[in-house]
Amino acid sequence: MRSSRIAVCAALAITLAAAPLTFAGLFKPDRPARGLTITARPSQARPAVGGIMRVRVHVEGARGVGGVPFSLAYDPAILEFLPSESLEGTFLRRDGASTTFLARAGRARDGRTAVIVGLSRLGGRGVSGKGTLCELAFRVRGAGVSSLSFARAQALDTAARQIPARFVGSSVRTRGAP
User: Fold this and answer.
1) Whole-structure pTM over 0.85, yes or no?
2) Rounded CA gap, 152 and 72, in Å?
3) Shortest CA distance to 78 belongs to which of 124, 115, 34, 47?
4) Are the C-beta atoms of residues 43 and 54 closer than 8 Å to each other?
5) Strands (E), 108-169
6) CA 84, CA 132: separation in Å to the nearest integer?
7) Inter-residue contact 92 to 122 (CB < 8 Å)
8) Tens-binned pLDDT, residue by residue, of the chain (178 aa)
């Protein structure tokens, strides 16, 4: 019993000692403070060559989000981005706010082929909760595995200040034509 009290007191002392450093910006916790997570998940487990596949970009644990610019890298030998079939989600427009949505083919900073996405609310307060940011459409060009990885991804509040967030990509395994 005495050793557990000592452990609790030690943990409390460490927490209190680190708190001023956190507020001063000198110490950054490993986890996002608000639990904000943004994921990219394909709509199908094994889409066939020639078919259309959607990737849903979803947000959870948001507090005061005003924008989410990101690049999503993929293998162009396996997937072809279809900008005209990609759609803005309902998350940022939740309360009727005006938004901007841009999704175009491009390159990530490291040279990989990517979809460059800009999503933001115009004025007002940020959005909290969970929902769909966008759905990106791809035509399956070849059989194989393509990663869907975030690059240059940020979550921003309405004043364009960065919010701590975790971006989680995925991959898709495509199959030959039926």
Assistant:
1) no
2) 9
3) 47
4) yes
5) 113-121, 127-140, 144-151, 155-156, 162-163, 166-168
6) 18
7) no
8) 444 444 333 333 333 343 343 334 443 434 434 489 999 999 998 999 999 999 999 999 999 999 999 999 999 999 999 999 999 999 999 989 999 999 999 998 888 999 999 999 997 889 999 999 999 999 999 999 999 999 989 999 999 999 999 999 999 999 987 6
